[in-house]
Amino acid sequence: LSLRQVSLDDTAHDYKLPTMEGEIDADMAESHWGRMLASYYPNFVDPYAFSNKPAPSPMVAFITGGVLLVINIVLWLIRVKKLKERTGDSFRGEVMIRGMIACAKDNDEPYYTMCSFSAVSLIFLGGIQIDFKTSFLAMLCYIFVASLGSLLRVVLAFCGNKSLSDMIIVSDEMEDSKDQYTKIKEKQFQYMEVQPSNVYQDIGRQKTLVWMIFITQVTFMAFVCITVYQGDTHKCLDGTLDCPVAMTASSYIFYIVGIFQACLYLLGPKTNYGQSEMSQSFWTVLFLAAKQNGARVLWDDPVHEAKYSEMSTMHRDTNGKWILDEDGNPKLFRYIELYRRNFHTWARFVMSYLVNGIGFNILILTLPIQVAQQSTLIGVVFRAVGMMYIADLDDSKGLKLIIVENESGEHVEMSENTNRPQDRNVEQSAREEKTSSHDDNEALSAEANAIIQEARQKLEDLAKNGPTKRPSTKRPCLGSKSISGNSFGCIPTDGGGRKKTEAAAILAAATENADVSDVKGEGSAFVLM
């Protein structure tokens, strides 16, 4: 008898559900869950296999998920309380909202993250067992609402603070950026160095490539949603077709395994051990810098050199000195201007939110369902690894960015003909620094050449006229007491007025003051390289 022929309204109890013993007890057979199993179950190839045993009732998933949800709320309240104690009186308004969202969304504590994700997944598991497609649509709505938290945190930080120095930190992810900014803020020239983690953050990356990756990721994620929605049945491990998802023991266990794998992705190296895939700290720093007058993002592109670009400028270090290239010229960086309504920057932020905010959460939360739909053990492995590859398409460490808050409004225009700075003050300052360094090098070189010429002349006279006997006297010299193993008996001095290289100074002192009778052998020759 095909169990698929039994109706939910059937009150007869003479049918048997396939289990390891071949039947179940009368209580389950009389229950709504028993009649539902009977209406869903197909004719199994192996009806006595453990993998085809009926899954636990949806109430098991609902109760377990509810208990974990209560524990998760308690942990969240504890996290909020700790944050309030740390921030003090500042915990109000937008700081309070950002803090509460950060306490709910951040994955800095493994137990909290596992408890939170497991609670939501188990509650949806119960819904999937009752009505697969309705529960899946409800899951997508939940993901969309939950992902708004990441967007809201950045917008609130942007609207509620004038600069990063005024911002109250509510997340560990922002601590490093704030510490770096505070240290540099004490210097004369303010800037920060940030490392992009994906192509949307890599401002120097070509727009065409960014749009190609974005379209590819969105398309693949849409395919995943459509496939999962249509996959309310699957092939069982024994080859039986049209098995309902999460209604057999094997599918139910695969769902639990998928929860574990998803937690591993959230807490493991995939997300840099709990860091947000969207990286709200990067966008917060970038947008707060955009509120400053004349702020810029600079980068050194070794492929597309800045000297061939119209958008090029120079940059000072924290001591106010122009950064020079290997030729001693002021180094040119490519840059873009930052301002509040910069479409280019906001467009990248929206793309990052759609892919790494909403899209990543869809892949993570639907991963247990996708694993439960598999018909082989190796399929579980392929599904777990392959689905997350979609989220990794944009992951690429780009060129290090320098965010400069040019509060003085200093602007460097580039010449169309020479691609060099036109600003006379900037160019003059850079020229003076370069000239000063060049003059010092020339002066030292001239003195060294004079010393070498003097030493060479005295050595030639010594070779021509021969040694002259005279009492040995010890007179001061600079530094070393020997050359090529021959002692000249000189003692260190406090130094003269001229700067000498060590070798040239020793040769000059040796030829002037040495007792050449101490030199062993005939025909000794001095070679000055």
What does this entry look like structurally?
The protein is mostly helical. Helices cover 51% and strands 6% of the residues. It has 14 helices and 11 strands. The chain has a 5-stranded antiparallel β-sheet with strand order 1-7-4-6-5. The longest helix is centred in the C-terminal third of the chain and has 42 residues, at 424-465. The protein is elongated, with a radius of gyration of 37 Å.
Estimate the mean pLDDT confidence.
Answer: 76
Number of H- or I-type helical stretches: 14
Total beta-strand segments: 11
Radius of gyration: 37 Å
Largest sheet: 5 strands, antiparallel
Percent strand? 5-15%
User: Uncertain runs with pLDDT below 50, 5 residues or more?
Assistant: 1-24, 184-189, 407-424, 472-501, 513-529
Q: What is the general shape?
A: elongated
Structural class: mainly alpha
How do the SSEs run, as a string of H and E? HHHHHHHEHEEHHEEEHHEHEEEEH
- Helix share bin: 40-55%
What brief labels describe this structure?
529 residues, mainly alpha, 5-stranded antiparallel β-sheet, two-stranded antiparallel ribbon, 11 strands, 6% strand, disordered N terminus
Short note summarizing the structure:
With 529 residues, the chain is mainly alpha-helical. 51% of the residues lie in helices and 6% in strands.
Any chance you could write out the topology, listing elements then pairs?
Blueprint: H1 26-30, H2 32-40, H3 58-87, H4 94-105, H5 110-130, H6 132-160, H7 175-185, E1 191-194, H8 207-230, E2 233-234, E3 243-244, H9 249-267, H10 280-290, E4 296-299, E5 312-313, E6 333-337, H11 343-372, H12 377-392, E7 401-404, H13 424-465, E8 476-477, E9 482-483, E10 486-487, E11 491-492, H14 502-513
Helix pairs in contact: 3-4, 3-5, 4-6, 5-6, 5-9, 6-10, 6-11, 8-11, 9-11, 11-12, 13-14
